[in-house]
């Protein structure tokens, strides 16, 4: 009975931890996400004749995605529209990589310390070997999915996923995503808005579907 009570208590603490993580990401989205999306579109349009400022803005916003409610797909497509496919992809990639590294560090340092206080160091240590085999694939498939991408990166850091598998998953995923967003943005700037709108919805949906297929396999 005592063991069952301890397991139930640990499960409840894990639920509180994961709920708190999602709430910390979702609540700012609900409060200011739409306003930030509109501001981003207005800012990139206003700075269209200053590509270096647009590039800096895209990199900065995507880098802050783990700590601010940044509409990453809208920022990336707007960057591709203003900068073109080549420069836009470079800016998007730099921003996505910086954001992923910030999220990983947040999970590995303050996040792990907070999680250890909440669920206990022993329970947290037991999470590490369970996360490491699926961590790289989860990182790879979650990159286009809003909210999930930030949560998975932070959890990878909290589980101390080693740098090598982390980078082997995140670098190609971010490169492919940067090329896709920049290409959709460049297409939109040429007057073809429908592919960009479809891509903003389809890429996260496809990644989410693939993840569910993997979990059921």
Account of the protein in words:
The chain is built from 8 helices and no strands. The chain is mainly alpha-helical and 217 residues long. Helix 5 packs across helix 6 and helix 7 packs antiparallel against helix 8. The N terminus is likely disordered.
Q: Regions with pLDDT < 50 over 5+ consecutive residues?
A: 1-10
Per DSSP, the total helix count is 8
Question: What fraction, in percent, of the residue positions are helical?
Answer: over 70%
Oligomer designation: single chain
How many domains? The number is 1
Give the terminus-to-terminus CA distance.
34 Å
Return Rg in Å: 19 Å
Number of strands: 0
Short description:
The chain is mainly α and 217 residues long. The chain has helices at 2-46, 51-63, 72-83, 85-119, 121-142, 148-158, 163-189, 193-216.
């Amino acid at each position: 009975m005592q063991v069952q009570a301890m397991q139930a208590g640990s499960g409840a603490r894990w639920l509180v931890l994961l709920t708190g993580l999602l709430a910390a990401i979702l609540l700012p989205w609900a409060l200011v996400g739409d306003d930030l999306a509109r501001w981003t579109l207005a800012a990139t349009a206003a700075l269209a004749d200053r590509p270096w400022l647009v590039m800096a803005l895209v990199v900065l916003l995507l880098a802050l995605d783990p700590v601010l409610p940044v509409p990453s797909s809208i920022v990336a497509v707007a960057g591709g529209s203003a900068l073109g496919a080549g420069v836009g992809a470079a800016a998007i990639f730099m921003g996505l990589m910086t954001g992923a590294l910030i999220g990983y560090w947040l999970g590995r340092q303050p996040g792990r310390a907070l999680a250890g206080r909440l669920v206990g160091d022993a329970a947290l240590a037991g999470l590490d070997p369970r996360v490491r085999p699926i961590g790289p694939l989860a990182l790879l498939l979650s990159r286009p999915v809003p909210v999930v991408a930030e949560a998975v990166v932070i959890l990878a850091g909290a589980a101390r996923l080693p740098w090598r598998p982390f980078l082997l998953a995140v670098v190609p995923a971010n490169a492919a995503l940067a090329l896709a967003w920049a290409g959709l943005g460049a297409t939109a700037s040429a007057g073809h808005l429908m592919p960009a709108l479809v891509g903003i919805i389809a890429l996260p949906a496809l990644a989410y579907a693939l993840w569910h297929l993997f979990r059921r396999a």
